[in-house]
Amino acid sequence: MELLLTFAKIGLFTFGGGYAMLALIEDTCVVKKGWITHDEMMNITVIAESTPGPVAVNCATYVGYKQKGLAGSAFATVGMVIPSFCIIFLISMFLDNFLEIGWVAHAFAGIKIAVGILILDAGVKMFKKTPKKPLPLAILICAFLAMLSVSLFSLHISSVTLMLTAAVISLALFAVKPETGKEGVKR
Fold first, then answer.
1. For residues 6 and 28, is the Cβ–Cβ distance under 8 A?
2. What is the mean pLDDT of the chain?
3. Which long-range contacts (CB under 8 A, 24 or more apart) does 112-115 make?
4. What is the pLDDT of residues 82-118, one digit of tens each?
5. Which of 29, 62, 115, 160 has the fewest C-beta atoms lying within 10 Å of its C-beta?
């Protein structure tokens, strides 16, 4: 029940989708409750981005599974989804032109700024916790420049193409990289 209530609270009070929720999920599950470690949160985020479904829901499912198995994953997932579902359902029932209401439009304009800040906060926290090795930094810089180029020059490149390219490059680098033991000695 704690999983359901915790993720329902996150789902209810976070606007902007999965990436905006990551900072709150990390704060709740890592810092306050100690359910997972910072490293696990980073791994969950990477896996959640790669699997079908919203990032926040995938993170909730993992944390729930780690805490209470299959039942925990179900409760955490339902807790994350129910608030958004109920709000959208009520809006669709009672307000046909919801976003045309002046104060609602202004509130959502302000929420956009807060969402951007939450996403930036999650990215900065993850960057600070990432080991600063030359290869990951080079990959980060290349990925950032590629995304910036796509946005600035309005290039129409499929996200699937970008993900497959990143996967091929990562696998190639992994295959070329020599294995090291615990002492850091090449095998």
1. yes
2. 82
3. 112/16, 114/15, 114/16, 115/15, 115/16, 115/17, 115/20
4. 998 898 888 777 766 777 778 887 887 888 888 778 7
5. 160
